[in-house]
Amino acid sequence: MPRLPTHPEQRPQPRRVRSAIVLAAALLLLDACAGLGQRLDPPKVTVVSVRLDRVQDAQAFFGITLDLANPNPSALTVDALDAAVAIEGEVVATAQLAAPVRVPAAGSAEATLVAQTGVDALVRAAIAAMRRGAATSPGHAPTLRYAIEGSARFNGGLAVPFEKRGEFGTQGTAAQ
After folding, report:
1. Could you tell me if residue 151 is inside a domain?
2. From 46, 87, 96, 135, which residue has the greatest number of CB atoms within 10 Å?
3. Is 92 inside a domain boundary?
4. Residue 174 carries which DSSP code?
5. DSSP structural state of residue 64
6. What is the chain's alpha carbon radius of gyration, rounded to the nearest angstrom?
7. The pairing of beta strand 44-56 with beta strand 59-69
8. Is the pLDDT assigned to residue 127 strictly greater than 90?
9. C-alpha dihedral, 100 to 103 to 109 to 114, nearest 10°
10. Domain of 74: which CATH number?
């Protein structure tokens, strides 16, 4: 069994030991929190493609592919990704993130949004296209105008808006 020192100068002072422990704990806490206040550069969100995936029964299903580019030195988590899908100026659906996405540090990742709407909305859009005079020249298919507008939320609050406008061809894929 170890012997304790008998002289008071040789014994550890409880106050000094306690102060050293508190100081060490405070330093560790400060070090752990140092990265929390780090300012993030906004990621870039780009709409890569918009497509009509399928029409089943009385429903139309859309897929939207986004590219998420992260300029930051740490990975980002996508908390939410929502967008409004408009065809011929009429919002026909709301698209949501299909699966969770993590964007690596100084890298990029692909995100897929899914949306569905009634076929009646597509019929109304086709009628609107005819009214606007979506003229087709020989050899060119008629098109429907679309707009995707939404926002991506990263790491619990950093919101990044995105939008894209273009036209669908008769094949269901974006013509522009």
Report:
1. yes
2. 87
3. yes
4. B
5. E
6. 28
7. antiparallel
8. no
9. 30
10. 2.60.40.10
> Does residue 150 sit within a domain?
yes
Sign of CA dihedral 39, 71, 155, 81: positive
Q: Which domain holds residue 164?
A: 44-168
Taking alpha carbons only, the member of 33, 31, 95, 30 closest to residue 66 is: 95
pLDDT tens digits, residue range 58-83?
999 999 999 999 999 999 999 999 99
Band (27; pLDDT cuts 50, 70, 90): very low
Instruction: Note the helical H segments in the chain.
Output: 14-33, 119-131
Q: Collapsing DSSP states into helix, strand and coil, what is residue 85? A: strand
pLDDT at 5: 58
Whose CA is closest to 54, among 64, 46, 62?
62
Q: What is the pLDDT of residues 32-61, one digit of tens each?
A: 444 455 788 999 999 999 999 999 999 999
pTM for the full predicted model: 0.71
How many separate domains does the chain show?
1
End-to-end alpha carbon distance in the chain: 83
> What is the token pair recorded at 62?
């859309």
31 band by pLDDT with thresholds 50, 70 and 90: very low
